[in-house]
Design a protein that fits this description.
- Helix content is about 40%, strand content about 15%.
- The chain is an alpha/beta fold.
- Strands 1, 4, 5, 6 and 7 form a five-stranded antiparallel β-sheet that branches. Strands 16-15-17-21 form a four-stranded parallel β-sheet, sandwiched between helices.
- Strand 5 and strand 6 form a beta hairpin.
- The longest helix is centred in the N-terminal third of the chain and has 43 residues.
- It is elongated and about 130 Å long.
- Pfam families: AAA_15, OLD-like_TOPRIM.
- It comes from Phocaeicola vulgatus.
- InterPro entries: AAA_GajA/Old/RecF-like (IPR041685), Bact_Antivir_Def_Nuclease (IPR051396), TOPRIM_OLD (IPR034139).
- This is AAA family ATPase.
């Protein structure tokens, strides 16, 4: 069985039911309550903490009778998948409620009430544990508690003291389990045969150990007399008693002297204490998993077998290189699949870890309007073919860079490398820094944003509700009626011929999300726009701020900028263009379209600029130039396209 749901009421979420320190249960304090509780609620009732944990039968998991017996009275669903519930409540007993309400009745400050609870009432609180989904708290879960093993590794941990020698409990427990492991795991032997064979080995050890102890005692015999004479002199010997030494050498004694070492391929040995923290954390976790395997082994632990081993790790990236994080996750997954552990919980801010797990395994916690919310990315997609396709696409798309979308406060989806590189710089021209607002720009490498928007659609109860802007190109296309294939066209070639069919990008999506509470789509001007690079030049024709050294037609562009209008001189320059397609299409189309001459000039320059750029390779150079310009003493003015302006202002709000 596995934990599928945990609800926590009247306080913030905690990681587990039993918070331990040095194996001692930690008592909750005032700071464990929900401090957002209103003063009215605090004055009407004493705060309490209630945690309800629902466990469900895992897929392909056969529940044995022993497991069923320990859940007696706690089951809430008897047909498969079986479900059981455990409950915890930390509360002020009824006999103290009247006193509490009296003390807080006239208080007008919420902090004063918390101080009263801390001073006068927190010590009176009790906790109760019970099973089932009823208010009957008499259903004991003592059998269940003893079958759980919750191992928690926090982010800042010194693992050395627990594992370097056999004297340390963790290593000793693991060694004692794995001694004679080959015999105990031989399924062809009966239990009696296994025990008999281990007994023979034990007896052989005892026979060999006795001479060693006899030899040691013989070597101590004379020195012992001198040493113990002091006890006689001090009066410790009386009533015919006197001290002596005795002992047996056991397997455990020998295991205790073993030390964990690291050995390289040429035989050099160094103590594990000389390793780095990250390496030793991996060693520690491997030993911990071995211990959990031992405690879950019914043949070894008998009636004390752990049925529900759970491993919780806080921020493993604190000690592991990114490449090791992938390997570590693979290692944990194998242990889970081999049933050495039932469940693994990892809290992380690592994009490497996030991108390496399945969407179904992700649980996202985020804050919205001051409240903690929980999202389940794997459940954001419906069970239709479209939903399954979107889920598969998002899963394949995730990598360490794109997984940033789960951690950012706001997201801007863009179609290509140019938008990804330039948008943060354009925001700076408006006085905004995306990093300060925890905004991430995600390059979806095409028009696939509808797949990702399912993750953030606030109309879906499982989604991650955060503000999402989509910036997409208008990119007009056309085809002759009856033809199957659309081809790209320039804005001034759009909708000029009745025999041609035209289409622009994202019309339906813009309508769909027009009034959406947290998602908005931004696109270029519906008449003059095409792409980001096209629009940048369209709105900046009087400056060479966009002219970079790697442009294919830099001289031609500078000449056109210097002319400053659509006239015969500009036409002559275009007619000298080596690109035959541009020359034959550009001027005739601009001559034909009924636009203002200034718009024609802007379109002419934007066309030549876009056709002079490679597919994104110039974006990095342009980004550097724009950043340098912004930091210069007399920066050139940059006119940001309106749709980019709107997107930046909306996402910043």
């Amino acid at each position: 069985m596995q934990i599928i749901f945990a609800s926590v009421s009247y306080r913030r979420v905690v990681a587990d039911l039993r918070v331990t320190s040095n194996d001692i249960y930690r008592r909750l304090s005032v700071d464990d309550f929900n401090k957002n509780t209103t003063i009215e609620k605090l004055k009407s009732q004493a705060p309490s903490v209630e945690i309800n944990v629902v466990l469900s039968q895992s897929e392909n998991d056969d529940i044995e009778n022993e497991e069923l017996n320990i859940w007696e009275g706690s089951t809430i669903k008897l047909e498969e998948p079986l479900m059981a519930q455990m409950n915890y409540c930390f509360y002020l007993p009824d006999e103290y409620l009247e006193s509490y309400l009296l003390q807080v009745s006239d208080i007008q400050d919420v902090n004063t009430i918390w101080n009263i609870i801390k001073r006068d009432f927190i010590r009176l609180y009790r906790y109760e544990l019970w099973g089932g989904n009823t208010d009957d708290r008499s259903i004991s879960i003592s059998k269940i508690k003893n079958r759980f093993d919750f191992q928690f590794l926090d982010a800042i941990r010194d693992v050395g003291r627990d594992m370097f020698t056999g004297h340390d409990k963790l290593l000793r427990d693991v060694l004692e389990f794995f001694i004679d492991y080959d015999i105990r795991k031989d399924k062809d032997k009966s239990e009696k045969e296994t025990n008999d064979e281990i007994k023979v080995l034990h007896d052989e050890f005892v026979q060999k150990a006795e001479p060693l102890m006899d030899s040691m005692m013989k070597r101590l015999s004379e020195g012992k007399k001198v040493m113990l004479n002091y006890s006689d002199s001090t009066g410790a010997n009386f009533d015919k008693t006197y001290p002596d030494f005795s002992g047996n050498l056991t397997e455990s004694d020998l295991l205790a002297i073993l030390k964990l070492i690291v050995k390289d391929k040429i035989g050099i040995e160094i103590p594990a204490t000389h390793n780095g923290l990250g390496y030793n954390n991996l060693l520690y976790i491997s030993l911990l998993l071995a211990k959990m395997q031992a405690e879950s082994d019914e043949d070894f632990m008998k009636i004390n077998t752990i049925l529900f081993p759970i491993l919780a790790i806080e921020e493993p990236e604190a000690h592991l290189h990114p490449s090791m994080q992938y390997k570590f996750l693979k290692f944990l997954r194998q242990n889970r699949d081999n049933h050495n552990i039932k469940q693994v919980f990892i809290t992380t801010h690592s994009t490497q870890i996030t991108s390496a797990v399945k969407l179904d395994d992700l649980i996202c916690m985020y804050k919205e309007s001051g409240k903690i919310r929980i999202a389940y990315p794997g459940r954001c997609f419906d069970d239709t073919e479209e939903g399954k396709g979107s889920k598969h696409f998002v899963q394949r798309f995730l990598d360490a860079t794109n997984a940033d979308m789960f951690f950012a406060s706001k997201i801007v989806f863009v179609e290509g490398i140019a938008e990804e590189l330039l948008l943060p710089v354009l925001a700076k021209y408006k006085g905004f820094n995306f990093a300060d607002h925890h905004i991430v720009v995600i390059n979806e490498r095409g028009r696939y944003f509808e797949h990702f928007l399912k993750l953030f659609d606030s109309n879906n109860k499982y989604s991650i509700c955060k503000k999402v802007a989509v910036i997409t190109d208008r990119d007009p296309v056309r085809k002759t009626k009856g033809s199957k294939v659309f081809s790209t066209c320039w804005p001034y070639e759009y909708d000029v011929d009745e025999e041609t069919e035209y289409k622009i990008n994202a019309d339906e999506a813009i309508k769909k999300y027009k009034d959406h509470p947290n998602i908005r789509i931004f696109r270029n001007n519906t008449i003059y726009g095409k792409t980001l690079e096209y629009d940048l030049m369209f709105y900046n024709t009087t400056s060479d701020i966009l002219i970079i050294d790697s442009l294919a037609n830099i001289n031609e562009l500078q000449q056109l900028i210097n002319i400053g209008k659509f006239n015969d001189t500009a036409k002559v320059i275009i007619n000298k263009c080596k690109n035959k397609t541009i020359k034959e299409r550009l001027l005739p189309a601009l001559e034909k379209i009924d636009w203002h001459v200034d718009i024609k000039y802007k379109s002419l320059l934007a066309t030549r600029y876009l056709s002079s750029l490679g597919k994104g390779e110039n974006a990095f150079e342009l980004r550097l130039k724009l950043e340098d310009n912004l930091e210069s003493e007399k920066p050139l003015y940059l006119n940001i396209p309106p749709y980019i302006n709107e997107a930046i202002e909306w996402i910043i709000q």
